[in-house]
Write a structure and sequence with these properties.
The structure holds two protein chains of two kinds. By secondary structure, chain A is mostly beta strands. Chain A contains two helices and 22 strands. In chain A, β2 and β3 form a beta hairpin. Chain B has a single domain, classed as Porin. Chain B starts with a helix and ends with a strand. Classes of the chains: A mainly beta, B mainly beta.
């Protein structure tokens, strides 16, 4: 992607004349943090220990990126950039921490071409192709952004510290965006290719509309997730007995044998429809405004959505369990900080937030072996984690642990319904950034190294209990 | 990121007709590309059990590129970011392993730092606070040996060389640093996060002082409270309840027990179990002497280069605390190095360094990387007295201000990291007749 983009910009600069202006933007940062409490230590891993303990695990990373933006003409702009950041295996416990590998992973910040009608800062119409960042809810610091983050079935919420979706300098969309604005109304139509969650290369079509009326902004959106599949057989694998056979089909279908003579089979699919509604209310306007406050102070914002309009099967039988709701508030800091925000979320899905059956093992080293199966739209179950129907899990030491009703449960999880995140950031001299986050969110640690070329875990969010939390600190600068 | 891609960006930047200075920031662009090659001419052939790690006649090399941007934000703040990529090739090892060969590109972030500069007591002094990941070395003369305070384990006291990056720039450390200078006096207070040697993320606190008491003479000293703030106490200091299975798989190579020092009597009968730790206190002292200043032989009109004839040296104590059996004699925990910049007469730079380190413990740090403060057990065929002396001959030349030629011939602490099938922390140079050479050509701006 990088040589293509660079090759594109150079001749375009020649075609469009010597007045082409370039802006170079860069960023570097170092992160440090720690998982202070994580109650779920159950894993179906192959290690002799068969548990993954993240408690007290240190977290550290650093990264840098450079992006070049080119003004090719008064209505054409291009941008490309790349970066790298350090990814390390989670430390886990015991022997695992000594097998940790750290590698730098590359990413493309942007690789796009945009055509504008009107002023580039606020165009009436624009068309963007390529890789580009996009957030329909720029108030979000951590939780939310349900429409374009995460799969539908299962309705896994994604996020956590360092997620690219909350970073406007890094691309999260690959495809096409049409933007149109008319006064206080604007809307976007996005055709995007799935890059993160298997099966990849499917195309989704999303539409987001916003209306701003003074201090209040309302938004709504719909995402026809995986509308155009790369391979339609992979969307509903259970229907193809060539793809999945015998007992393996249990991971892709649900059989209701209430009437044994006429069992009802439900075929789960990756495709689905998400809808969201957003709001942002600037309370400063109600108090007559305040010059001593930052522009974002006293903003109340929120988002609610439905992850999958269609109800089916036992796993997705109740729509109320597919509705995440998030509310956030920027506390006034009177210029001391840029943001001091609290976000709280409620999501009543009963299954564990775990991509184990879908894939995306969050790997550090591409050569480490993980047991990949065909991506399944079903959520994880206790059976996947060798949890007995009695609700007990037997550890490698032959100790039995009661799982049902605790943070380690996989099928009837209620302790992780509430999530929260406190974010603080301070920018000095417009370019130096200090950031802190304390949260119980959807953070998904990297896998733990369990051998020279083996790793395990990395699919589930680490926080499943109200007592779980972590903190992260960042020092960085940008231009 | 491919090597070719690295050159696309500088070429593009070279054609920029108009460069926008964002908010009056001052941006400086730097970059480098290099190719390095060399060969291990003589290397002690290990016993059968380590036969895969036979490095004799192994070619070693790598190539890469680096791009950095320095940003002057204002009179107090500046930042630097660096991105690079390097083509790595594993050491071949013995002939039996040489078929398992695959080069691979590794990208890296060379630097990610912000710095705040201010005056502390007067306008004549300067306090720099570095935050993030930044290059650091307290001994500017050191080409290959020394820098004991900030590199290498304490228990066991394994030394590190080849700590300089592509162009002789010091390796980066992560954390915080307050660097104070006032005239000839300087003090660096470092809070360093351990990101290379396991267990990871332990915090070490060090302080390094330097004083140029005369234009010809400089002394320095330092202390490092190594791993004083461990992330996991049990991983850094295996306690009485230490379970060898809790440590890394290769900790089992430690002598007698990876968890404890088994103290034995003269008959070899175990008499006590002693707890040890990967953490400890290092001390350092160094000097620099420039005889040209004393004899008035330097200066602008002189035939001699600015650094010619400089003599420098460093010594350290790797672990103030003694433990029985392996760390009982403090004299065997004191590495000493000396170097001299030979006269290059402004044509080129060259120097020779020598080091003496009398430890009788193995220099293999594999057990330490797996959580054991106990030295590795080695075959009786290995005589740890034969690697007490090390040496290094370095030469460099910069052409046209942008092309660097470098060469090194040495018997040092080079570790090639094992082969495809077997990890090792064993040094490649184990006897006085072992040596290797390496050359590097680089372009930089």
């Amino acid at each position: 992607m990088i040589p293509w983009s660079a090759a594109l910009l150079a001749p375009l600069a020649i075609v469009f004349g010597a007045e082409t202006k370039y802006e170079i933007h860069g960023q570097s940062w170092m992160d440090y943090g720690r998982i202070m409490n994580a109650e779920d230590t159950i894993t179906n891993a192959l290690s002799p220990d068969n548990t993954l303990n993240y408690n007290g695990n240190g977290l550290q990373s650093l990264g840098a990126q450079v992006t070049v933006k080119a003004d090719l003409s008064h209505n054409l702009e291009a941008a490309f950039g790349f970066g790298a950041y350090k990814a390390s295996h989670a430390l886990g416990s015991g022997q695992q921490s000594f097998m940790t590998i750290s590698l730098f992973q590359n990413f493309v910040t942007q690789s796009r071409l945009t055509w504008y009608q009107g002023e580039k800062v606020a165009p009436s119409l624009s068309v963007t192709v390529g890789g580009f960042p996009y957030s329909y809810n720029p108030d979000v610091k951590n939780l939310g952004l349900y429409l374009l983050r995460g799969p539908v079935y299962p309705g896994i919420l994604m996020g956590g510290y360092g997620d690219f979706a909350t970073d406007s300098t890094k691309s999260t969309m690959l495809g096409l965006k049409l933007h149109h604005a008319m006064g206080n109304f604007s809307h976007d139509l996005i055709l995007t290719s799935e890059r993160d969650v298997p099966p990849t290369l499917d195309w989704s079509l999303a539409y987001i509309a916003k209306y701003k009326a003074g201090p209040l902004q309302l938004g709504a959106g719909v995402n026809f997730y995986r509308l155009i599949p790369y391979n339609s057989a992979l969307e509903t694998p259970g229907k193809d007995t060539n793809l999945v056979r015998g007992d393996a089909r249990r991971a892709y279908i649900e059989i209701d044998s209430t009437n044994p003579s006429a069992p009802d089979t439900t075929f789960f699919t990756h495709q689905g429809i998400k809808v969201v509604g957003t709001f942002s209310l600037d309370l400063k306007a109600l108090f007559g405004g305040s010059e001593s406050m930052n522009p974002d102070d006293l903003k109340l914002y929120g988002e609610g959505g439905v992850i999958g309009l269609k109800s089916y099967g036992k796993a997705y039988g109740k729509i109320a369990e597919r509705i995440p709701v998030m509310v956030g508030f920027n506390f006034p800091t009177f210029g001391l900080l840029n943001h001091l925000s609290l976000e709280v979320e409620y999501y009543g899905a009963k299954y564990r937030n775990d991509l184990a059956l879908v894939g995306n093992n969050n790997v550090v080293a591409p050569w480490t072996i993980q047991d990949h199966r065909l991506p399944s739209p079903k959520p994880v179950s206790n059976e996947d984690y060798s949890i007995h129907t009695s609700g007990y899990f037997v550890k490698s030491t032959n100790d039995s642990v009661l799982v049902r009703g605790t943070a380690m449960d996989k099928e009837n999880v209620t302790k992780d319904d509430i999530k929260w995140s406190v974010n603080i950031d301070k920018v000095i001299q417009s370019h130096v950034q200090f950031l802190a986050q304390v949260a119980n969110d959807h953070f998904r640690p990297r896998p733990v190294a369990s051998g020279l070329i083996q790793s395990e875990g990395g699919t589930a969010e680490v926080f499943a209990s109200p007592k779980d939390w972590y903190f992260m600190l960042r020092i960085g600068y940008f231009f | 990121m491919k090597f070719k891609s690295f050159f696309c960006l500088p070429l593009l930047l070279a054609t920029i007709p108009v460069l926008a200075d964002l908010d009056q920031l001052k941006l400086e662009y730097h970059g480098a590309g290099w190719v390095q090659t060399g060969r291990v001419e003589s290397s002690f052939t290990p016993p059968k059990e380590n036969a895969g790690n036979a490095y004799e006649k192994n070619w070693v090399g790598q190539s890469g590129g680096l791009f950095a941007i320095h940003t002057a934000i204002d009179e107090h703040w500046d930042g630097e970011l660096g991105l690079g990529t390097v083509l790595v090739q594993l050491a071949r090892g013995s002939k039996g392993n040489s078929n398992k060969w695959y080069p691979f590109w590794v990208s890296f972030v060379d630097e990610a730092r912000i710095t705040h500069t201010s005056h502390l007591f007067s306008n004549e002094d300067e306090l720099k606070v570095n935050m993030g990941t930044f290059h650091y070395g307290y001994n500017p003369d050191s080409k290959n040996m020394g820098q004991y305070l900030v590199h290498g384990y304490v228990y066991p006291g394994t030394l590190v060389t080849n700590f300089t990056g592509p162009l002789g720039v010091n390796q980066a450390i992560s954390g915080l640093q307050a660097a104070y200078t006032a005239g000839g006096f300087k003090n660096d207070l470092n809070l360093q996060l351990e990101t290379d040697d396991k267990p990871l993320y332990d915090i070490s606190i060090s302080d390094v002082v330097g004083w140029r008491m005369h234009p010809a003479f400089e002394i320095g000293a330092g202390v490092n409270f190594y791993r004083v703030l461990p992330t996991n106490k049990k991983a850094t200091s295996p306690g009485r309840d230490c379970d060898a299975n809790f440590l890394g798989v290769n900790a089992i190579g430690a002598t007698d027990s990876p968890c404890f020092i088994i103290e034995k009597d003269t008959a070899g009968v175990p008499i006590d179990t002693v707890l040890a730790s990967l953490g400890g206190i290092k001390l350092m002292g160094r000097f620099r002497l420039d005889p040209k200043v004393i004899f008035g032989a330097g200066g602008e009109g002189s035939m001699l280069g600015a650094d010619d004839l400089v003599i420098y040296g460093e010594m350290a104590v790797l672990g103030v605390k003694s433990y029985p059996r392996f760390y009982d004699n403090i004299l065997r925990r004191i590495p000493v190095m000396m170097g001299i910049n030979l006269p290059g007469f402004k044509l080129f730079n060259w120097s020779v360094e020598g080091e003496y380190y009398a430890t009788k413990n193995s220099s293999n740090n594999l057990a330490a990387k797996n959580g054991s403060p106990i030295p590795m057990k080695e075959s009786d065929a290995i005589n740890n007295a034969r690697d007490d002396w090390k040496w290094s001959l370095n030469a460099s030349k910069v052409l046209g201000g942008h092309v660097a030629l470098m060469g090194q011939v040495a018997n040092d602490h080079l570790r090639l990291g094992g082969n495809h099938d077997e990890d090792t922390g064993m040094e490649a140079m184990r006897t006085p007749i072992d040596w290797y050479w390496t050359t590097k050509i680089a372009y930089f701006f």
